[in-house]
Specification:
It is a single chain. This protein has helices at about 1-20, 25-50, 85-100, 180-190; strands at about 65, 70, 105-110, 115-125, 125-140, 145-160, 165, 175-180. With about 190 residues, the protein is of the alpha+beta class. The strands form 2 sheets. Strands 3, 4, 5, 6, 7 and 8 form a 6-stranded antiparallel beta sheet that branches. The protein is elongated, with a radius of gyration of 23 Å.
């Protein structure tokens, strides 16, 4: 009798466990669904910071600037975001940049968008949550030879009916760094 009860209890535990998805699987499914909305978020970013009229610039290229057959990030030198939380993002990026490049003189740290960029996360045509993105750019003078332009991204997510929480690995994420000469810097400033 004891063996039978133990066997049933084990079977119950196995069926419960079999129906619960591991956190890794849930996260993977969430990311796959979220990636579908990233293209839309990219277009919102471009509109928010004034790049092109859609997903491409007017000349059909992406938001990078090509100079002498090399693609560079645009220089963002004007801060557009005025939320009370702005110093959290700019200070975080400034500190990360300073830690990586201690001898570079920081010239600007800006959030080149007026508000968080919103992406609705859907599953089978039903809204499941909201993903918000904020970008930060740091430009620093590297001695007398050139500049460093770094791009950071912050993301937060909330399921319907809940509060926003930071997306792990994207709070912030150091997205890209361009090391540019003085000549390229001047040419990017004029773009």
């Amino acid at each position: 009798m004891l063996v039978c009860a133990f066997g049933q209890q084990g079977a119950m535990a196995q069926s419960k466990t079999a129906t619960q998805e591991p956190l890794v699987t849930k996260a993977s499914k969430f990311w796959k669904k979220t990636k579908k909305n990233i293209k839309h978020a990219g277009q919102e970013v471009k509109e928010a910071i004034g790049i092109g009229g859609g997903s491409k610039n007017a000349d059909g290229t992406d938001d990078y600037v090509t100079i002498d057959d090399v693609s560079y990030m645009p220089l963002y030198l004007v801060n557009l975001y005025s939320g009370q939380d702005a110093p959290v993002y700019t200070d975080t990026c400034r500190n990360m940049f300073r830690h990586k490049y201690p001898n570079v003189r920081i010239q600007s740290v800006v959030l080149p968008q007026k508000k968080w960029l919103n992406t609705t996360v859907k599953e089978k045509d039903q809204v499941k949550g909201y993903l918000q993105t904020m970008y930060c750019y740091v430009v620093g003078k590297d001695g007398t030879e050139g500049y460093i332009n770094a791009k950071f991204m912050f993301q937060r997510y909330r399921e319907v009916g809940n509060e926003f929480g930071h997306v792990v690995g994207v709070w912030p994420k150091w997205v890209k760094t361009d090391v540019i000469t003085n000549d390229i810097y001047e040419r990017l400033k004029n773009k």
